Amino acid sequence: MSFYENTLKNMQKAAKIMNLDPEALEVLSKPQKTLIVSLPVRMDDGTLKVFEGFRVQHSELRGPFKGGIRYLAEVDLDEIKALATEMSFKCAVVGIPYGGGKGGVKCNAKELSQGELERVTRKYVQAIYQIIGPEHDISAPDMYTNGQIMAWFMDEYSRLVNKYQPGVVTGKPIEVGGSLGRNTATAQGGTYVLQEYMKLHDMKPESTKVIVQGFGNAGSFAAEILHGLGFTVMGLSDSKAGVYNENGLDPAGVMEHKKKTGSVSGFSGATSVTNAELLEKPCDVLVLAAMENQVNDKNMMNIKAKVILELANGPTTAEADEYLSGQGVVVIPDILANAGGVTVSYFEWLQNQQSYYWPLEEIQTKLKRVMVESSQRVLDIQKEHHCTMRQAAYISAFDRMAKALKLRGSGANLLCKVYNH
Ligand code: NAD
Q1: pTM, full prediction
Q2: Measured distance CA(77)–CA(46) in Å, rounded
Q3: Ligand 1 atom at minimal distance to the Cα of residue 292
Q4: Ligand 1 center to 219 CA (angstroms)
């Protein structure tokens, strides 16, 4: 099953439980717009390379399209459609007034120089700028994109429309309209969700052992925050390898090591393990913060975690999800667990629109409120419907989107007419 089919399956299961209007499911099962662009870029060695880029706009029922951009060699339309769809649900779960979108460029960002990355980014913006904008479609960082790439993105868009437009993209560096607290927001938001779950199940940080897959933006901050709260972080991994110590690791020390060597691999005071082995180690909470389809039909039988916190998008396949829930493993779903990122992106966009910047404390208080209230709503729905947390999160989002669809009238036609450039 592809990632997009997986997403549709999750939607269909929740729609059935809540008895959703079939028309709402029909409308939300198809992205409003998909754009594929080709990007000819001059490389440092003088050769010309043509990259493929994507932007998918899933739904703007509840507000402008919103979603990150990934630079990945394996990226394809199916994946971007799935991620754009999940973004609509994510924004609805946390009640922020956005719809969903996602973008990507098929490239290996690690092999590109800074100059090449800048040229790819500017070409990508030139190719999609007519369908984006602070009131239409707002981008953000995702896998292998970062604040610098967002700054080039914003600069190129502002140049093309001849107006300073920081709100066209979030996740920017502070100096060019970024928000305090954005870099830690996904991990911090996920921690609040996990804590709400733990309160209900009488779990304490001091006796909770954690393994984190993925040591990038989401995973490294999650490991540091959880360690700081007293959790034992036993294992960490990146794309190259994993490190494990059942007595606990110091994530800040592992980060120092990664900065020097380029990987977590070889960190002293830990045993080296493969990524696959790390996922199968016993633990209380397995934080998935790398990429999609990591827990699947091949390894689901060997997962020993009690709780899975999905900071990555789509890390558990539908088949594995069903199997794990049958085994009593609780999966805290991506659309809730990692929604802290888009929530602080929304705060960044609000600050850009007002040209007025908030102190960190205000951002953290507002993020906590959103994540705690959204978690409680999902946990209440779960109790009411006796379903999984993923199904409850989808129900929570469907409820808000279906109401918006009803209020706006005969949804699909109206929307396409307004935004069909
Ligand atoms: P990133 O590029 O900063 O980090 C990704 C990390 O995963 C890297 O450390 C990489 O080495 C590692 N990785 C890749 N393949 C791996 C594998 N097979 N096993 C173990 N590690 C592997 O990306 P990120 O922004 O942290 O995003 C990670 C995931 O979180 C993605 O699914 C992304 O869509 C999702 N997400 C991120 C944010 C955010 O704010 N950054 C928000 C919501 C969702």
Answers
A1: 0.94
A2: 29
A3: 32
A4: 7
